[in-house]
């Protein structure tokens, strides 16, 4: 069997697959986030412990030899480790907002745009550049004690294998990697005031690093590959590799990806170009900060359970009886398809007559409009696949198809873990039928009338967004 490991922001999963791509078993463990005053952190030992636990569970449930394993996980953030891969301090999450001050400064003085023109990376507070700059100013001793500033999956890879610190071209894409040479741009390091911390950037393994496991969670000697991180891994797992085709990941983060061979560093700086394992091929990524996390907040606030969502969406008409939501709930603002660290969510049109169903539908519609904005900015021209936790709601998928105005190729299951296995198989020269592994489970067609309604609603969404961005700048 083949095992994929997906170290998510709130959940760690391991999935076992047959060589045909059939999912044999999945094990998962929740992991906690510490949130206070815009700071969002994770305990690395808790995350690694969850990885070992899910691997033990899934291999116990499917007692077959493990041919190979692929590893993926959340991107961005800063995971400071020592030479053994042990934490120097808590991991700063990609959702962290403490570094908004350097981002604001770089936006004002032109550094932000210069970095984008060089690397295709529109920095946001939770990416490594701003976080390292913040730590260098406020916690220099933590950086002094660290051997490497890794990404999540790299920390796990180091501890599972005992390898030296390393990362891959996908994780390194934000914000230091030159997408043409696939090496670090030292001028960008200098622009961010981090030349004296250059040693913390882990060597980039291109192609993916491989090693043998030490026996924690997986049998000792299991071949494993490190990467790509979760966004490009999901693109692989959904079969999104042809230029123009796109993927929408409706997870904690709302990520829009479009495969491309065109590196265009003009236009408004936003999102990033993710380097893939094929030189000359990128994913134009617009990873918005909040996806299902926005809906989770509304459900928690209204006391509605997840299994009630489909029924409530059916109760309320398109337009949610006038309730509107700008779904920018993250404490660090928004990063795609624009960067606005101080942007916050807005609920309008609410009255004493508004129901929980109205709030829920308006939130789902708002997320759909944000996705449409991101996909348009990313250059979607071909087919669109969709994956993530949101696909478990058929009603939400129908709503998304209507809001986006296009068919959705729904790919269910552990898509990131599936992509990690396909990447590992490519690295080890193992032949797997990628078409069979990435076949959609359903295709959801939009309703023509509702799609026309939502096209008008999308223009109204953009107008409200422009007003909100203008207010916070004045």
Strand and helix layout:
Blueprint: E1 2-7, E2 11-17, E3 23-30, E4 34-36, E5 39-42, H1 44-61, E6 68-73, E7 79-81, E8 91-92, H2 100-109, H3 111-119, H4 128-138, H5 140-145, E9 148-150, H6 152-161, E10 167-168, E11 177-178, E12 183-184, H7 186-191, E13 204-205, E14 209-212, E15 223-226, H8 230-237, E16 246-250, E17 254-260, E18 272-275, E19 282-288, H9 292-302, H10 309-315, E20 324-326, E21 346-348, H11 356-378, E22 384-387, H12 394-404, E23 408-410, H13 415-428, H14 434-437, E24 442-444, H15 448-473
Parallel strand pairs: 1-6, 6-15, 10-13, 16-22, 22-23
Antiparallel strand pairs: 1-2, 2-3, 4-5, 5-8, 7-9, 11-12, 14-15, 16-17, 17-19, 18-19, 20-21, 23-24
Helix pairs in contact: 8-13, 9-11, 10-11, 11-12, 11-15, 12-15
Approximately how much beta-strand content do the residues carry? Answer: 15-25%
Terminal-residue CA separation: 58 Å
The percentage helix is: 25-40%
- Strand order, main sheet: write it out: 18-19-17-16-22-23-24
Shape: globular
The total count of helices amounts to 15
Main sheet attributes: strand count, strand direction, barrel closure: 7 strands, mixed
Q: What is the count of β-strands? A: 24
Q: By helix and strand content, what is the structural category?
A: alpha+beta
Q: Low-confidence parts, pLDDT < 50 over ≥5 residues?
A: none
Radius of gyration: 21 Å
Oligomer: single chain
Mean pLDDT: 95
């Amino acid at each position: 069997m083949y095992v994929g490991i997906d170290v998510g922001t709130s959940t760690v999963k391991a999935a076992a697959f047959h060589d045909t791509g059939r999912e044999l078993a999945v094990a998962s463990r929740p992991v906690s986030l510490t949130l206070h005053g815009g700071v969002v952190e994770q305990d690395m030992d808790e995350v690694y412990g969850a990885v070992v636990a899910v691997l033990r569970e899934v291999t116990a449930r499917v007692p077959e030899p493990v041919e190979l394993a692929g590893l993926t996980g959340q991107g961005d953030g800063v995971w400071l480790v020592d030479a053994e891969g042990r934490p120097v301090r808590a991991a700063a999450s990609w959702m962290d907002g403490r570094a908004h001050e350097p981002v604001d400064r770089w936006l004002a003085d032109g550094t932000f745009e210069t970095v984008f023109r060089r690397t295709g990376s529109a920095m946001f507070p939770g990416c490594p550049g701003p976080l390292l700059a913040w730590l260098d100013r406020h916690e220099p001793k933590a950086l002094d004690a660290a051997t490497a500033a890794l990404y999540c999956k790299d920390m796990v890879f180091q501890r599972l294998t005992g390898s030296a610190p390393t990362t891959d071209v996908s994780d390194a894409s934000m914000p230091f990697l030159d997408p043409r040479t696939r090496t670090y741009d030292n001028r960008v390091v200098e622009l961010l005031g981090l030349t004296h911390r250059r040693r913390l950037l882990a060597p980039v393994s291109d192609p993916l690093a491989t090693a043998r496991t030490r026996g924690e969670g997986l049998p000792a000697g299991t071949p494993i590959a490190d990467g790509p991180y979760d966004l490009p891994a999901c693109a692989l797992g959904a079969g999104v590799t042809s230029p123009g085709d796109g993927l929408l990941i409706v997870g904690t983060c709302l990520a829009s990806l479009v495969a491309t061979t065109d590196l265009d560093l003009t236009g408004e700086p936003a999102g990033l170009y993710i380097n893939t394992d094929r030189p000359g091929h990128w994913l134009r990524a617009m990873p918005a900060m909040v996806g299902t996390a926005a809906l989770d907040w509304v459900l928690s606030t209204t006391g509605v359970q997840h299994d009630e969502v489909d029924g409530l969406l059916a109760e309320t008409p398109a337009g949610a009886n006038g309730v509107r939501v700008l779904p920018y709930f993250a404490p660090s603002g928004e990063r795609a398809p624009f960067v606005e660290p101080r942007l916050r969510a807005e609920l309008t049109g609410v009255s004493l007559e508004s129901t929980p169903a109205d709030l829920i539908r308006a939130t789902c519609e708002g997320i759909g409009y944000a996705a449409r904005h991101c996909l348009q900015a990313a250059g979607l021209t071909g087919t669109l696949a969709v994956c993530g936790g949101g696909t478990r709601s058929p009603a939400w998928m129908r709503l998304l198809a209507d809001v986006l105005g296009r068919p959705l190729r729904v790919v269910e299951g552990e898509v990131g873990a599936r992509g990690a296995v396909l990447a590992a198989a490519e690295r080890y020269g193992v032949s797997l039928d990628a078409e069979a592994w990435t076949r959609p489970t359903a295709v959801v067609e939009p309703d023509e009338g509702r799609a026309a309604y939502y096209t008008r609603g999308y223009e109204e969404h953009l107008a409200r967004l422009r007003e909100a961005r203008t207010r916070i700048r004045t």
